Amino acid sequence: MQKNPIVPFILIMAFGIGLIFFLSMTGVDKKEEIAAGHEEGTGGETAEGAEFDPEVAQGKCITCHGGDLAGQGDVPALVGTDLSKEELVKIITNGIEGTIMPGGLLPGQEEAMADYILTLK
After folding, report:
1. Most distant pair of Cα atoms in the chain: their distance
2. φ, ψ dihedrals at 72, nearest 5°
3. 13: Cβ–Cβ under 8 A, 6 or more apart, which residues?
4. Cβ–Cβ < 8 Å for 92, 105
5. Is 72 helix (H, G, I), strand (E, B) or coil?
6. Model pTM score
7. According to the model, what pLDDT value does residue 121 have?
8. Helix (H, G, I), strand (E, B) or coil at 120
9. 45-54 exposure pattern, b = at least 16 Cβ within 10 A, e = fewer
10. What are the 10-residue block averages of pLDDT along the chain, 121 residues in total?
11. Number of H helices and number of E strands within the chain?
12. Alpha-carbon span 46 to 27, nearest angstrom
């Protein structure tokens, strides 16, 4: 008697559908808890309230300011900047209108990022 080669695929498909159904029901049961976490700011991808991580922050700057943050093209260098901490915080918070510098990249961590930039030599 010859085995049907499709049977294992059907079993895997049935298991996958069952798993998706189970996980969906688990999410429905916890929807209020998940929503409360988002309202408190603990459930999202935001950096607000998180501890400042220079590597994560630098990763947001590398694309435009270059791998060594020395600037490239019309984008100024962050290393050795002559801007004050207050100016940096304003730029990090609001961006620079008419340029590619967006605001709000590090919500709640603007001052820590400004301090970090000022340490770059």
Report:
1. 82
2. -160, 135
3. none
4. yes
5. strand
6. 0.57
7. 82
8. coil
9. eebeeeeeee
10. 82 93 76 67 49 81 86 88 92 90 87 90 82
11. 5, 0
12. 21
CB of 104 within 8 A of CB of 95? Answer: yes
Give, as one character, the DSSP assignment of residue 100.
S
Structure tokens at 17: 């559908």
pLDDT value at position 39? 61
Name the residue type at position 97: E
Token pair 């700011």 is found at 41
The per-residue pLDDT for 90 is 93
Residue 38 CB contacts under 8 Å (≥ 6 apart), including other chains: 44
Structure tokens at 103: 């605001």
Q: Which two tokens stand for residue 44?
A: 């999202």
Structure tokens at 8: 């294992």
21, 56, 78 from 119: Cα distances, Å: 51, 16, 10
Tokens of 121: 């030599």
